[in-house]
UniProtKB/TrEMBL annotation:
Listed CDD domains: ExoIII-like_AP-endo (cd09086)
SUPFAM superfamilies (alphabetical): DNase I-like
GO molecular function: DNA binding; double-stranded DNA 3'-5' DNA exonuclease activity; endonuclease activity; metal ion binding
Protein's organism: Sphingomonas baiyangensis
Keywords tagged on the record: Hydrolase, Magnesium, Manganese, Metal-binding
Official protein name in the record: Exodeoxyribonuclease III
Upper lineage: Bacteria, Pseudomonadati, Pseudomonadota, Alphaproteobacteria, Sphingomonadales
Amino acid sequence: MKIVSYNVNGIKARLPRLLEYLAEESPDIVCLQELKSSDETFPEADIRDAGYGAVWHGQKGFNGVAILAKGVDPVERVRGLAGEPEDEHSRYIEAEVGDLVVASIYLPNGNPQPGPKFDYKLRWFERLATHARTLLDSERTVVLAGDYNVIPNDDDVFSVRAMASDALMQPESRAAYRRLLAQGWTDALRTRFPGGGVWTFWDYQAGAWQRDAGFRIDHLLLSPTAADRLADAGVDKAHRGREKASDHAPTWVTLR
């Protein structure tokens, strides 16, 4: 079973690339981020014509997350995270697909830092950690897939110096990610490539793609029962190089 995390950077603009990906790779589950689409304008008919059921949590022009499942309709469990009622950002959706619990996550970027956006990022991280612990306590097979907007290690980035002041690499961001992993989650891509050097994002600016100046911010975290079924993990990097592609590449895990 192939489970994918894919920040599409605008589902309407990238719909041809998404449908192309579904047709070519035929993943079982796809967790989308940064839809930049309201609930009403989500292209459900196109997704269904491609053979996928979907649940989504949209927001006009910003954010937005969805879960697609091949041949079935995901059963929504949770929409948004508790702990900050005034937060109207669409950044979390969770569903059941068969025996799996899958979440699509779009964590706040946090720039510029320091400042209120960075403070919001850290608060959101803690809310995610609180909910993640309840998922672990359920002893279900869980995959937390998404754009975490965190570069966990120095070998997850093309240049430490270039990103040193960015919110994605601040000690507080990394510490929040480590605390989440310490609950008992397995970072699938890190497990597959323990030496790092695997990117999931290349900026549109400064020829980043052409220079392979990327970094790893898209992660799939596995609960213990999911980690027991880990077969492989990787990045479908070639899809980043296509015309009018997202700045993220689809990042995936396969479970037995």
